[in-house]
Design brief:
The complex is a heterodimer of chains A (about 260) and B (about 300).
Chain A lengths: L2 H16 L2 H30 L10 E2 H30 L1 H8 L3 H35 L3 E2 L2 H29 L2 H20 L4 H9 L1 H10 L7 H25 L3
Helix pairs in contact in A: 1-5, 2-3, 2-5, 3-4, 3-5, 3-6, 3-7, 5-6, 5-10, 6-7, 6-9, 6-10, 7-8, 9-10
Chain B lengths: L1 E10 L2 E11 L3 E6 L6 H8 L7 E6 L14 E4 L11 H11 L4 H10 L4 H5 L7 H13 L5 E5 L7 H16 L3 E5 L3 H7 L2 E6 L2 E7 H6 L3 E6 L3 H13 L3 E6 L2 E5 L3 H11 L5 E6 L2 H9 L16
Parallel strand pairs in B: 3-7, 3-8, 5-6, 6-7
Antiparallel strand pairs in B: 1-2, 1-4, 8-9, 10-12, 10-13, 11-12
Helix pairs in contact in B: 2-3, 3-5, 9-10
The chains are: A mainly alpha (about 260), B alpha/beta (about 300).
């Protein structure tokens, strides 16, 4: 197929995403949640070192680690971008127009993934920068922000958010309903792995490690155990890719 | 040219579209008629590759919709005037459609102009558009790629009389340019004025595929007879019934007669010496023809049908 139609599908998706106010409100909400979250977690980190309880002292922490912890909450705002890019089409009925314009279901979903992934990555960079700017002064003497490390953490946060956004998009295409998709995402990212980790049984922990949120956390933390951080990134990317395949199968099989 | 070959859609045990085989030819307006639930919208969705046929195929210029590379240059369609994101402006809606098929932005302004939506209306979010404006926007979207085949599902719903007339003229001129125009409607009087050819379905089955005037000619002509003499009228009714006509007494001084001609009724009245105040042929309308064609296939018998698809 010609490249013009592929490029056309991407241009159309960008036009759709950028022409609804909810996209910009979601970005603004993400910024506020990130700023509040980073500020609060930075206060906790500083407090732990200055309070009367010596057992919780963490010493000097990196700004990047505060960022990464802030993502745990912020991601639920950011993933709305990927989610709404598809579920709003089912709600408003524009999915039929979209499929008339681009009959290839796979191409539609790939174009949406490219746009949602790029937008959430860019937003992730912005969020990371804002989080670092908030966390650094709050941490004061208890914080450190090595340039290379902090930039690395910001890029990692952006990559994580982009993949979570694509995961939400793929699931949304399969489930067609925003509330249902959010519920499944909450379960997959948080509830199920937390429940698995709760009893601290080795085999259950191993299973939890495969879940996208946990894999992403290992990637962000730069862990070497239970697997190298790159494996965490690949696992998360695998989840996002699988969600897209599931969404494509649903779009192909079902009547629009 | 739209080609349907044994096109069938089953939902569970329900057959929504039943082995439809029709050619919809270019250069004329083909009306698509059927009672509610007859399968009109499902057929249109299958033509556009949105619903998968259970059997058979729907082809546009010999190819399935899903195989088209830049489909908006081949087929334009208005399915649902309400299908716009509530917060997206009409113009951005069209812009997204245009970009998907590499259609230049200037074409968006052209079609907005064609359908009579001014810049102010085109900037308003979707939720504030009236049904009529939604129809115009949907028609604009269908015209974007300047396609040789156009399909409209109930395009005049929600339009004022001016708008209805505009749509009629638009269809006419598009057909005159040699395009294939396939338009569904439940407004019989409108179809009678607009369509050259009619495809009538009921319960998913093809009931008629013929030129509009042929379909209308197939309808029963009813004759209205009024007389100031009820007794004479009763005698005339008995005589007509004996002659094989169907007679209904509309009132004490009025009969509706079908199965014969006005000439014949006049002759008989003269023979019987019954004085008449009115003798007029009625019917021969598309509405009458449609009612007769679909009498056995209305989904909800009893009440009068109305409203759109879906």
């Amino acid at each position: 197929m010609s490249t013009s139609t592929r490029g056309g599908a991407v241009a159309a998706e960008w036009t759709k995403l950028s022409s609804v106010p909810s996209t910009w409100w979601t970005a603004l909400a993400g910024l506020l949640v990130m700023a509040a979250s980073a500020g609060q977690l930075a206060i906790y980190a500083a407090n732990d070192n200055t309070n009367d309880d010596p057992t919780d002292d963490r010493g000097i922490v990196t700004v990047g680690s505060v960022l990464i912890d802030s993502v745990e909450l912020t991601q639920y705002v950011v993933l709305a971008l990927g989610l709404l890019a598809i579920t709003a089409e089912f709600t408003s009925g524009t999915i039929r127009t979209t499929l008339q314009c681009t009959p290839s279901r796979g191409r539609v979903l790939l174009a949406k993934a490219a746009v949602a992934g790029t937008v959430t990555f860019a937003l992730g960079l912005l969020l990371g920068g804002v989080g670092a700017l908030v966390a650094r002064p709050v941490l004061g003497e208890w914080g450190t922000a090595p340039v290379a490390g902090t930039i690395g953490d910001i890029v990692a946060v952006a990559a994580y958010l982009a993949l979570i956004g694509v995961l939400a998009l793929g699931l949304g295409a399969a489930l067609r309903n925003a509330v249902l998709t959010i519920t499944v995402l909450l379960a997959t990212l948080m509830i199920v792995p937390l429940s698995l980790q709760e009893p601290d049984i080795d085999v259950l922990n191993r299973i939890a490690d495969v879940f996208p949120g946990v894999a992403g956390a290992h990637f962000l933390a730069g862990d070497t155990e239970p697997y190298p951080s790159l494996v965490g990134l690949l696992l998360l990317a695998g989840w996002a890719g699988a969600a897209l395949l599931l969404g494509r199968a649903a779009l192909r099989r079902r009547d629009a | 040219m739209i080609t349907l070959r044994g096109l069938t859609k089953r939902f569970g045990t329900t057959v929504a579209v039943d082995a439809l085989t029709v050619d919809i030819a270019p250069g004329r307006v083909t009306g698509f008629l059927g009672p509610n639930g007859a399968g009109k919208s499902t057929t249109m969705r299958m033509i556009l590759g949105l619903d998968r046929p259970s059997a058979g195929q729907a082809l546009i210029g010999g190819r399935a919709y899903r195989e088209l590379r830049r489909p908006l240059h081949e087929v334009g369609a208005l399915l649902d005037a309400r299908a716009i994101h509530p917060a997206r402006s009409g113009r951005a809606h069209l812009l997204a459609i245009a970009r998907s098929n590499g259609i230049p932005t200037r074409r968006v302004d052209e079609v907005l102009d064609t359908v009579g939506l001014d810049a102010r209306a085109a900037r308003k979010p979707g939720r504030t558009l009236s049904l009529g404006m939604g129809q115009r926007l949907g028609i604009a979207g269908a015209l974007l790629g300047d396609p040789p085949v156009l399909m409209f599902d109930e395009p005049v719903n929600g339009l004022d009389p001016d708008g209805v007339r505009w749509v009629r003229q638009l269809m006419r001129s598009l057909a005159d340019q040699g395009r294939t125009i396939f338009v569904s409607s439940h407004l019989m009087s409108e179809m009678q004025l607009t369509a050259d050819q009619l495809v009538v379905i009921g319960r998913g089955r093809l009931l008629a595929d013929a030129p509009t005037d042929k379909v209308i000619a197939g309808s029963t002509v009813a004759v209205r007879v009024r007389s100031p003499h009820p007794d004479g009228l009763a005698a005339l009714a008995a005589r007509l019934t004996a002659a094989g006509a169907t007679v209904q007494a509309a009132d004490r001084d009025e009969l509706t007669v079908s199965g014969t001609t006005a000439d014949r009724v006049g002759d008989l009245a003269h023979e019987l010496g019954v004085r008449l105040h009115e003798l007029s042929p009625h019917g021969a309308s598309l509405e009458q023809a449609f009612m007769e064609l679909t009498a056995d296939s209305v989904e909800y018998a009893g009440g009068p049908t109305g409203g759109g698809a879906r």
